[in-house]
Design brief:
Blueprint: H1 3-9, H2 23-34, E1 45-50, H3 53-75, H4 86-98, E2 105-112, H5 135-147, E3 151-155, H6 162-169, E4 175-184, H7 199-202
Antiparallel strand pairs: 1-2, 2-4, 3-4
Helix pairs in contact: 1-5, 2-5, 3-4
Bound molecules: flavin mononucleotide.
């Protein structure tokens, strides 16, 4: 598969077939995660592939708590969904939440805290760099899933249950949970393109606001 095709069509999958995911496919996608850039090449990212049905059921029970709070706030207008397809997004996301543990695999992406080196903690705002050594690996993994024909949903709501998840999965001290990627075969075919802003709105030429040419 061409890289551009994978990038343009790696949509968030929230409806999965019950079919098990072959180890070889997961391994190929995880291997892509391995090659992501990480600050100082310290390689702090770890992946825990959760397939045990009882563990998945427990993860679903925990996921539903922040999800129900989130969807409640979203429906009351307290959260900006930022999508032209907000209703469909919430419906699919609610479906995934209600069936979270039925997806064949949930990949918990972890990071060894000692291997992270955020450079923006003194700015008096939320650190963005903190996750910089983690999420490229998550995206590489998701693109790997796309290449092998697996759907994936990047989620972070469950991170609020980090202490419980760590105990359940025997994740050691000094390691944080960064994402829970739900993985499986899609119910429907992949779309031909994702719903994203045009390049002219997000890429600037020289100074903020001057649209970069070559809009596609
Ligand atoms: C940092 C991050 C956290 C996310 N957390 C969740 C989540 O907890 N639950 C969920 O259903 N989707 C989650 N998403 C998926 C986004 O909703 C999705 O990427 C976005 O709506 C674009 O959707 P698309 O891939 O269908 O175009 C998350 C995405 C990112 C990048």
């Amino acid at each position: 598969m061409e890289l551009g095709d994978a990038v343009r069509t790696a949509v968030t999958t929230r409806r999965f077939k019950p079919d098990a995911v072959p180890d070889e496919l997961l391994a190929r996608a995880l291997d892509y995660g391995r090659f992501a850039p990480q600050g100082g090449n310290r390689q702090p990212v770890r992946f825990v592939v959760v397939r045990d049905p009882e563990h998945r059921r427990q993860l679903q029970e925990w996921y539903l708590v922040p999800w129900k709070a989130y969807i409640g706030a979203a429906l009351e207008g307290g959260i900006d969904i930022g999508s032209t397809h907000a209703t469909g997004l919430l419906r699919n996301a609610d479906h995934m939440a209600e069936h979270f543990g039925e997806a064949p695999a949930i990949v918990v992406v972890c990071a060894e805290l000692a291997g992270l080196h955020p450079t923006d903690t003194e700015l008096g705002r939320l650190s963005i760099v903190g996750g910089g050594s983690v999420y490229p690996a998550v995206q590489n993994f998701i693109l790997g899933c796309r290449e092998v024909g697996l759907g994936a949903a990047l989620t972070t709501l469950l991170c609020i249950y980090e202490p419980q998840v760590k105990e359940l999965l025997k994740i050691p001290d000094g390691v944080a949970t960064a994402a829970h990627v739900v993985v499986g075969f899609r119910e429907r075919p992949f779309p031909s393109a994702l719903d994203r802003k045009p390049l002219g709105e997000i890429a600037f030429d020289g100074t903020w606001g001057a649209p970069f040419l070559g809009e596609r």
